[in-house]
Amino acid sequence: MVATIEPRGVVRVTGSDAATYLQGQVSQDIDAVVDGGSAWSLVLDPSGKLVSWFRIHRIARAEFLLDMEPSAVESTVARLERFRLRTEVEFTVENGWRMASVRDDDVAVAGDLTAPVSWPGWEGTDTLLAPATPDPGLDVDPAAFEAARIRAGVPRLGIDLTPDTIPAEGGAPLIEGAVSFTKGCYTGQELVARIDSRGGNVPRPLRVLSADADLALGADVVFDGASIGVVTSAAGSVALARILRKAEIGSRVEVGGVAATVVNPG
Asked: Interior CA angle at 159 toward 155 and 162, to 5°?
């Protein structure tokens, strides 16, 4: 088991038009999320680049919680407010929430909202803990959890995913979990749909790098004598980097002078 508890950004969405408005602004099919259910989603800018990646929980017919990296709250709310003219929907930022993340399907955490998580090589849950919720008593190891995340190829918003990221660069699991290709129009969908129609090929996909020595955060990734990207997350001998797609799975690269291999997640 690996586990961690971290602060979590939460935005409550309410109003008679909440579901209709979100349906036209986010990548997930809101109508397919049942009361008490949750799903991953994206908010994009009009050009199709990433603003936010978050989980949306449907509390009731016209009430939702969005949970995300705390650093993404301000930009997410600003983007969602941008097209809100004459619409009955409100976005309320709530402070003090935490996320208990456990990668072990035999360990349960009591909390307000729990969602299953499936990473390559790991199964588990994410549980939102409301302000003043007692500590669940988990045996947490943030460093081990971070290493598992990186090895599984799971990006982190604000670190591996930035405002210049094309959503598909985050990997197929991100797109498969957060994007509906049958729901109809939403802001920024044109780029996502066009890339999907071309087989999902993007210039700089996120890749897992593995070595026999420690890999450094921010180090250049060199392939065939040329820099093809930089390390965005690192934990010991594994790292994540958005690199030019010419370095395929199995390619040998150098990361800050250390020999490494591009490997499959998990």
From this structure: 90
